Every structure is written in C-alpha cells, then in structure tokens.
Amino acid sequence: MAKRVGILTAGGDAPGLNAVIRGFGKTAIWHYGMELIGFLDGIRGLVYDRHTDLSGAALSGILTQGGTILGTSRDKVHKFAVDGETVDMTQTVVDNYERNKLDALVMLGGGGTAKNARRLTEAGLNVISLPKTIDNDIVGTDTTFGFATAMEIATDAIDRLHSTAHSHHRIILAELMGHRAGWLTLGAGIAGGADIILIPEIPYTVESIVATIKARMDRGSSFSVIAVAEGARDTRDTADYQAAQLLVASASTPEAKRAARVHLANVEDAQREHTFKLARELEAATGLESRVTILGYVQRGGTPCSADRLLATRLGAAAADLVEQGEFGVLVAVRGDATAPVPLSEVAGKIKFVPADHEWVATARKVGTGLGA
Length: 373
Ligand code: F6P
Known about the structure:
By secondary structure, the protein is α/β, with parallel strands linked by helices. The protein folds into two domains: 4-145 and 304-336, Rossmann fold, CATH 3.40.50.450; 151-300 and 355-366, Rossmann fold (3-Layer(aba) Sandwich). Helices cover 43% and strands 17% of the residues. It has twelve helices and 13 strands. It has a seven-stranded mixed β-sheet, sandwiched between helices. α4 links the parallel β6 (104-109) and β7. The longest helix has 22 residues, at 147-168. It is globular. The structure holds 6-O-phosphono-beta-D-fructofuranose (F6P). 6-O-phosphono-beta-D-fructofuranose is lined by residues 12, 74, 110, 133-135, 177-179, 230, 300.
C-alpha cells in the first residue's frame, strides 16, 4: 500500500521552499512510490482541510521559483484565530490527518513551525520538519535553506550602497532582516565590507559607532556603510526590551501575562524606528549626511541561489528517506556535509543566537569592522 504524505509550508516565505517541495516530492513519488498532497497556506490548510494533489506535473518547473506554490501563514495549531478568539485546533488537525489517511506530515518552516511540529508529534502524528528561514536562527542545524540566498541579496545591496556613500560622503545605514538573531546581518555585513555591523546580540552605543566613523574620517574615508539588523538595539533599548521580556516570562497569572505581552509589544513598536533614530544621531555627531535603506522583503524574494537549491533538494530527499524509514518527530538538520535527524524536542522553542565569541564576530573585529561596542 503506497504511503500517503502531506506537506505544507509555514511561517515567513524564504527562497528554496519550492525547491524542497520538488526534492521531497520527486523522491517520495518517483523513488519510493508514495502519494503526496500539499496543504494550502500552512497550518490553516490543515485546519480547514484545504489541500491539492502534488503529482509529478505539479513539481515541474518550481525549482527556481521564489516563494511557495502552497502558500503560507503564521498560524499556530493551539492558538488558531477564529472570529477574534484563539482556539486549540489540535484535534481538528488530527482528524483531518486521519481523514486524508496520511502516513506522515512534512512541515517546512522556521522556529514557530518546529513548535507546531512538536505539538502535532505529541498529538500522535508522524511529523518531520525542515529548517527554513533567512535568519539561520534554528538550533541543531548548521544552516537553514533561504539563508544563503538572503545573504547574496543583502550583500549585493550593501555593495551597491557603497556607491552613494562614497559619492556623497555619507553614512548609509542598510537595515537587514533578523529581528532576533544577527546571522544574516553579520554574514552579509562581512561579505559586503560594511564598516560597521550592528546585531541584536551585541547592544551598541552611539559613542562607539561615532568613534569608528571619526577614525575612518581621520584616515581619509569620508563615508561609512553600516549594516543594521532590524533587531539591533542600543544598550538602553536593550535593557528596556529585556525587562519587558522578563515581565512576560515571570507573569504568574494569565491576566498578568496578557498585560506583559501588551507592554512588550509597545516596547517593540517604540523601538521599531531605531535605524532612523540612529541615522539622526550619527548625522548630528559627525556632520556627515545619513541615509537609511530598509532592505525588507527583498531579502526573501526571487529565485534561490545555487547553494540553496542544492541544500533544499538534499533536505527534501533526506526527508523522504526518513518517511520511508519511519523516523518521525525530527527536524532534518544540516551537519557538515551530511544531513541528520534531530529530535524536535531539542529544537522547538529555542533560538540560535550569534555567540559573542563566534569566529565571524572575531573575523569582523580583526578586519577593523566596528560592532558598536
Ligand atoms: O523569520 C524570518 C523573517 O523574515 C524575519 O527576518 C522578519 O523579521 C520576519 O520574518 C518578518 O515577518 P513577516 O513576514 O510576518 O512580516
């Protein structure tokens, strides 16, 4: 009896999603004789049982396509929005999994999806998750698909921003994605030769940044290019943000947790324009014009780079192997030149931050890059 497998994409889109769907689908269908259905728009498709048959034809021509042919969403299984309320839809998902006579469910997503995958595993479903995000902030895996392409895009942008910086003797601040971890900003900042790189893991001071810019001016460089992670903060904002996070974590009642979450959201909103605020502070302190470019969703768009296509195809094929072998409750992780299953319990709910002593941090400092502290 052919195994029937469901697949879905969840969380923020990322380059390589369709390449994984193709790699998994071709291996599952052609190599193992399985049947494959794709659930639409992430968890929402599982809840409402919206799916499409993914036969060989549906997998043709999608290797190079950005985004996801299945659509995505950021829904949570246990906190699903229905008419303004949040409802636990775990049992509905289990029922739809059984109604479709599935033998396994493959979920392509980031940290949030790993939590959904763990929850459905605990509900008794056979689940495998694959590491997708441009942030590269999933623990247990050397890297994630989408990260290499986003780094290519961001590096090209930083390269191009050098033109206006040196032509106009300006400070150019490029804000990159990465609201929790700074891997993308650090990697693209080094690759793009940014003079200063600011990441969430290293709270900055304006004074330190000004000192780097002025030292460059003293050496005859009348411009600076700064790569700023959207989650980077100065030391004061970092203290406020961490205090707000602690309030949420330490709230002892549901009401207190709700109030703490509202406060945290207000702090995040108040800090959202930090790159523009920093630009004004640097212009005042150095006398150099400052301009901001927000790279935003450009970093997630378009065709995946070759490295991501290769990684995505490998991960998809490896996931099909695990379905065939009956190994579930795992993330298909990248480990050196190989892939390996890692228990979801070791991944879900955790974030891979840039360690202060990471080689990339040391490398940036050695080549004279300012890190804001
Ligand atoms: O998690 C990946 C990511 O691109 C982050 O870098 C970014 O902050 C976030 O998604 C944006 O989320 P959304 O697509 O929901 O606006």
